Amino acid sequence: MGMLLALLSQLALAHNPLAIVHPKLIGGPVFRASDYPIEAERHLWSGTVVADLTINPRGRVDGCKIVQTSGHKVLDDTTCSILVDRARFQPARDQNGNAVEDVMRTPEVPWKVIP
Questions:
Q1: What does R_g of the chain's alpha carbons equal in angstroms?
Q2: Which long-range contacts (CB under 8 A, 24 or more apart) does 45-48 make?
Q3: Mapping DSSP to helix (H, G, I), strand (E, B) and coil, where does residue 6 land?
């Protein structure tokens, strides 16, 4: 079965009022078609996930909180796992140019099995 996954290309909704420059994703696509969980594929589960990511001053994802669930725990958990493992950012910066923690909301991440 073919699968269609969104490529995380931009983030929005900054939460740190001290950050004047917000995190920017570094590199190419974060998700791959091969990431689709076998259990979800077997059951033809699909859905859309949105998460808030805590980006540390080193540009790594330290936390992932689901704010819109796909309706399937395995898809939600896989989304966070991939983002924590693979996503890298130029960190947020304060007015003095120091790297600071920030929270960013992902765009919608659609998971859909295409038969």
A1: 15
A2: 45/70, 45/71, 45/72, 45/74, 45/75, 45/111, 45/113, 46/70, 46/75, 46/110, 46/111, 46/112, 46/113, 47/71, 47/72, 47/75, 47/110, 47/111, 48/108, 48/109, 48/110, 48/111
A3: coil
Cβ neighbours for 97, distance < 8 A, ≥ 6 positions apart: none
pTM of the model: 0.83
Contact at 8 Å (CB) between 113 and 77?
Answer: no
Longest alpha-carbon distance in the chain: 52
Q: Domain residues of the chain, as ranges?
A: 2-114
pLDDT digits (tens), the chain, 115 positions: 333 343 443 444 556 666 678 788 898 889 998 999 999 999 999 999 999 999 999 999 999 999 999 999 999 999 999 999 999 999 999 899 999 999 999 999 999 988 7
CATH number of 2-114: 3.30.1150
Tokens of 87: 């996503």
